[in-house]
Amino acid sequence: MKRRTNRANAKVFMSTQPFLDKSKPYYQCQRCGNCCRWPGDVNVTSEEATAIAAYIGMDEAEFIRDCTRLNANRTGLSIIDKPNGECLFLDGLNTCRIQKVKPLQCSGFPNVWSFPGWREKCEAIEVSV
User: Fold this and answer.
1) 57 vs 4, residue with greater confidence
2) Contact status, residue 104 vs residue 48, Cβ threshold 8 Å
3) Which has the closest alpha carbon to 44: 120, 104, 98?
4) Which of 53, 67, 94, 129 could form a disulfide with 33 if both were Cys (CB 3.0 to 4.6 A apart)?
């Protein structure tokens, strides 16, 4: 099977994301894992919690009890951190155990949302589309 180029991947992603500002650059994730180690909330919707629980083979109530907490602004759930601050689902060097069903907050970074200074930590590369 032929692997898509970064440019082809970017075009596919952009075509499926109507809410993206297409006048801004697109950044292709390099799976550096740095965003998985930043402190803060990884918010999950109820639909995302359902999908993640099913993907990892947990009952949804068990997933919510064991893998989430109330987020900082008390408006929903967030994935809990490991004691060292990284995401609960980050394994090894940079393997996301829920990659196929990860929350939009994760999959949308840095193209859907970002914060000042993100380029200093993130290894995503700009790809022209």
Assistant:
1) 57
2) yes
3) 104
4) 94
The DSSP line for the chain is -PPPPHHHHHHHHHHT-TTS-TTSPEEE-----GGGGS-S--EE-HHHHHHHHHHHT--HHHHHHHHEEE-TTSSSEEEPBPTTSSBTTEETTTEETTGGG--HHHHTTTTT---TTGGGT---EEE--
Cα–Cα distances in angstroms (integers) from residue 110 to residues 30, 57, 92, 115, in the given order: 12, 29, 23, 8
The two three-digit tokens of residue 28, written as one number: 């292709």
Residue 10 has pLDDT above 50, yes or no: no
Nearest Cα to 44, choosing from 114, 126, 105, 110?
105
Please say if the pLDDT value at position 101 is more than 80: yes
* pTM of the predicted protein model: 0.78
For residue range 44-70, list pLDDT tens digits in order. 999 999 999 999 999 999 999 999 999
What b/e readout covers 63-76, taking b as 16+ CB neighbours within 10 angstroms? bbeebbeebeeeee
Identity of residue 10 = A
